[in-house]
Design brief:
Blueprint lengths: L9 E8 L7 H11 L4 E10 L5 E4 L24 H10 L4 E9 L4 H9 L12 H18 L3
Antiparallel strand pairs: 1-4, 2-3, 2-4
């Protein structure tokens, strides 16, 4: 099996931004990850939730700067995301915010996945720990260590 026949793990993230606007910094970093071949973006959907709690889609092509650099990814539309994903994303959001719902492939993992499959490996479990959770635990451990070591 060649690497061309293998896919990396597919993830999605829903990133909520306050103030009903996006500055563009997150989008710039996402574009750099794509350009470096680390990920491949399958779909991106910008979701808004107005002050009354009503969700809506933001057209990346006609957003007039409202979505920052995410407009650069407007061609990432495979059809994996649909109206029910819009509704689910909006349901998780706070009123008066915008969010980027992104489905991406971890292309960095393709050689590893291919090697594991060729060796007879089978994924039997997986998971993801959100970055904020990891940072909170590491901060708490650092505080605990400083407290117990007298530092």
């Amino acid at each position: 099996m060649s690497d061309a026949d293998v896919h990396g793990p597919i993830d999605y993230v829903l990133l909520e931004f306050t103030g009903n606007r996006l500055t563009g910094r997150a989008a710039e970093e996402l574009v750099q990850l794509v350009e470096r071949g680390i990920i491949h973006v399958y779909d991106i959907m910008i979701v808004g939730k107005d002050a009354d709690g009503v969700g809506y889609a933001v057209d990346l092509a006609e957003s007039s700067g409202q979505v920052g650099g995410f407009a650069d990814l407007q061609g990432a539309r495979t059809g994996l995301l649909a109206d029910d994903d819009l509704r689910e994303a909006a349901g998780a959001m706070q009123p008066g915010t915008l969010a980027a719902l992104i489905v991406y492939e971890n292309t960095w993992a393709i050689p590893f996945v291919a090697a594991a499959l060729e060796s007879g490996g089978t994924l039997i479990a997986g998971g993801r720990i959100p970055a904020q959770d990891v940072m909170a635990v590491l901060d708490a451990l650092e505080t605990l260590e400083a407290t117990t070591s007298g530092g």
